[in-house]
Amino acid sequence: MKYIIGIGGMTNGGKTTLTNKLVNAFPGCCVVHQDDFFKPQDQIPVGEDGFKQWDVMTSLDMEAMVNTVKAWLENPVKFARSHGIQVSPELEEPDSEEQTHILIVEGFLLYNYRPLIELFSHCYYIVVPYEECKRRRSTRKYTVPDPPGLFDGHVWPMYLKYRREMESSPVEVEYLDGLKTREQLFNQVYEAIRNMLNS
Ligand SMILES: Nc1ncnc2c1ncn2[C@@H]1O[C@H](COP(=O)(O)OP(=O)(O)O)[C@@H](O)[C@H]1O
Ligand SMILES: NC(=O)c1ccc[n+]([C@@H]2O[C@H](COP(=O)(O)O)[C@@H](O)[C@H]2O)c1
């Protein structure tokens, strides 16, 4: 069986932190980070809000991202090997179709792109309150540093827009409280995935 778990949610909710812990906990588990699919800076236009539009769907090459997820679905063992992930001998067996394979897909805009949504076995969405999100974001170093005012002028309004859009679509997400400790979040999701694998 193949399982694709989405770890979505707002910027600085703790997606990458949780994802790294989960990847370490499930041997052979693969990961796709949405951040790897940002288009080059010169292809990101400036919007009416006066900021480069990093937080909109078109800033990402979603087609390439979906193709990467489909490459994993096609052959998880080959995908793992080509990404330097150690594969246990049982997973290499010719009948590895009967084995359990897990892919974690992590990112801030996972649930607004239909071709990706339909691939998920389970969708998580981490949230923290505005003040905490802004505080964490202010200490974060991105490859392109945030210009002054970006959070309130672009990041937060786009977060609200896409969250509303997601909530009025048929996608079913399970919310995670990003104010919980790293360990609490890990334990909660780890146990839930274990239960899913055993059901
Ligand atoms: N559960 C948590 N409690 C407090 N701080 C956290 C927690 N998870 C992550 N962080 C911190 O918040 C910041 C953003 O975390 P990160 O995992 O990179 O978020 P995201 O991938 O959602 O943008 C980092 O400084 C990280 O150490
Ligand atoms: N990785 C990059 O190239 C890049 C560039 C500019 C902004 N960002 C920011 O990354 C954020 C999404 O990533 P996180 O969910 O990890 O915070 C977006 O809010 C976006 O503003 C990323």
TrEMBL record:
Alphabetical UniProt keywords: ATP-binding, Kinase, Magnesium, Metal-binding, Nucleotide-binding, Pyridine nucleotide biosynthesis, Transferase
Top-level taxon of the source organism: Eukaryota
Single biological process term from Gene Ontology: pyridine nucleotide biosynthetic process
Keyword Translocase: no
Organism listed in the record: Erpetoichthys calabaricus
Organism ancestry: Eukaryota, Metazoa, Chordata, Craniata, Vertebrata
Family in the record: Belongs to the uridine kinase family. NRK subfamily.
Name of the protein described by the UniProt record: Nicotinamide riboside kinase 2
Pathway membership: Cofactor biosynthesis; NAD(+) biosynthesis
Catalysis performed (reactions): beta-D-ribosylnicotinate + ATP = nicotinate beta-D-ribonucleotide + ADP + H(+); beta-nicotinamide D-riboside + ATP = beta-nicotinamide D-ribonucleotide + ADP + H(+)
Classification via CDD domains: NRK1
GO CC terms: cytosol
Gene Ontology MF terms: ATP binding; metal ion binding; nicotinate riboside kinase activity; ribosylnicotinamide kinase activity
